[in-house]
Structure formats: C-alpha cells, structure tokens
Design brief:
Shape: globular
Largest sheet: none
Length: 87
C-alpha cells in the first residue's frame, strides 16, 4: 500500500497523558484495521490506541467551528506536541 493514501503520516515521539474512552466494537474494529494499514504503509508497528490522539488532532485541526470559537488561536497548535500539518 502506498503511504500517500493515508491521511495520517509517521508518528512523532511525544509525551502522553492517559485518557480512558469507551468505543463501540465496530469502531474498535475499524481503528484496528486503520492501525494495520498504517503499519503497512509506514513500516512500523502501531496499535489503534497510539493512533487515536493523532486522529483526534487531525479532526480538530480541520473543524472550522472549533477554530472560529478559539479566541487565542490555540486550536491550530498541535495537541500531540508537534507542529500541526495538513494531512
């Protein structure tokens, strides 16, 4: 698989804060599938739990309402601690 077809690029090394969420079984399956495709595309094993923060970051970076509501512009800064980029 070509790595250019996935929206999420290689993952940077970052510090993390643990957050617990509950997912449907179907969503967990889709996340696992995405993680598998990501690992194939970038040649590095990764699990769904590792990808979720970066997926959320990409989602929030593209949410116009969220950006507009942010009065200090912090919505465009990286949540994961690395510069945001277009995916």
């Amino acid at each position: 698989m070509s790595n250019s077809k996935l929206r999420l690029g290689p993952l940077p090394k970052t510090e993390a804060v643990k957050v617990t969420i509950t997912l449907t079984a179907a969503l967990k399956g889709e996340l696992d599938r995405y993680a598998s495709l990501h690992a194939q595309a970038w040649g590095e094993p990764v699990d769904a739990a590792t990808l979720i923060p970066y997926m959320l970051e990409a989602f929030m970076a593209r949410d116009r309402g969220f950006k507009k509501a942010s009065s200090n512009g912090s919505a465009t800064e990286s949540v994961a601690g690395t510069p945001s980029r277009s995916l």
